[in-house]
Amino acid sequence: MKARHQLVAGLISASALAFALPASAQFGPERIAKPDADELYADRAMQKGWYDDALERYSEACEDKSQQREVWSRNCRKAGNIYRRGLGITQDYEAARKLYDTSCFDGRDADSCLEQAHVSFTGNDGNEDLEYARRLYKRACDLGDQTGCGGYGSMVYRGQGGIMNRDEGKDYIQRACETGDTWSCERARGYGFPDRRGL
Question: Do residues 118 and 84 both lie within one domain?
Fold first, then answer.
C-alpha cells in the first residue's frame, strides 16, 4: 500500500514538473517561419528592381493574418521598407509607419520597431518624434533586440523623449554591449563609461 502511494505521488510530481517547464523544453525550440513561394518571389523581385510585384506580394501576405505571425509581420515590414524608401513608388512615410506599427506591436517584429524608431528619431519623415522613438526602441528591446536596448538606453541616458535617468540608461547600454551589440558598445565608449557593467 505504501509503495502504491509513493508511485502515485511520484506520478503527480512528474506531471506537475512537465507543466512547469517552459514550452521550448516541452516541445522543442520555436521554429522560424520560413518564407513561402510568394515571399521568395517578392524577395527576388526586389533584387531585380520589380518593386511593384514585390509590393503587391508583400502587401497580400501582410494582410493574410491566417499565416504564422512571423510570416505576415515580416511581410508587413518588407512592404513598409518599399514605402519608406520610395522604391518604384512615391515615398510614403505614413504608409510605412502604419505597416511598421502593425508589424511591431501586433506582429512582435523587432526589426519593424527599429525601422520606425530610426525614422521617428531622425525626423526623416519631416516629423521628429522622440517620445515615439523611445517607445519603439523599448518595444524592440522587450522583444529581445539588443540594438533596441541600446537605443532605448541612449535616449533614457540623455533624457530624449522622456525623463532622463543616467543609471537606467547606462545599464541598458552596457547590458546590450555585453551581448556583443557593436552600436551599444560605441555608445558606451562615447558616453565615457566602460563597456561592462560594474566597472
Answer: no
